[in-house]
Write a structure and sequence with these properties.
Pfam families: UPF0147. Belongs to the UPF0147 family. This is UPF0147 protein Saci_0891. The chain has one domain: de novo design (two linked rop proteins). It has four helices and no strands. About 30% of the residues are buried.
């Protein structure tokens, strides 16, 4: 049960970090949209935490190579991906 709580805490923290990206108007719209999609995946309670994290990682890794992304946003996305990679069932 403790692992599930830890996973949910990591997911909540990742959602919070992604929410900052979504609310940052200096970030291009397509990147904010991808962050919103990742949040939506992370909040889908019908899936296990690891599957939700993997889905979000896929979205974020795809967008992380965008040349228009500000450097601070890229670093934030890498931090979120690193955190989500530790989520396991």
């Amino acid at each position: 049960m403790s692992a599930l709580y830890d996973n949910e805490a990591k997911i909540r923290q990742a959602v919070g970090m992604l929410q900052k990206i979504v609310n940052d108007t200096s970030v291009p719209r397509n990147i904010r949209r991808a962050a919103t999609d990742a949040i939506r995946n992370l909040q889908d309670q019908t899936l296990s935490p690891a599957v939700r994290a993997a889905n979000a990682i896929g979205i974020l890794e795809e967008i992380s190579q965008d040349p228009n992304m500000p450097m601070h946003t890229r670093i934030a996305i890498w931090n979120v991906v690193s955190m989500l990679e530790t989520v396991k069932d």
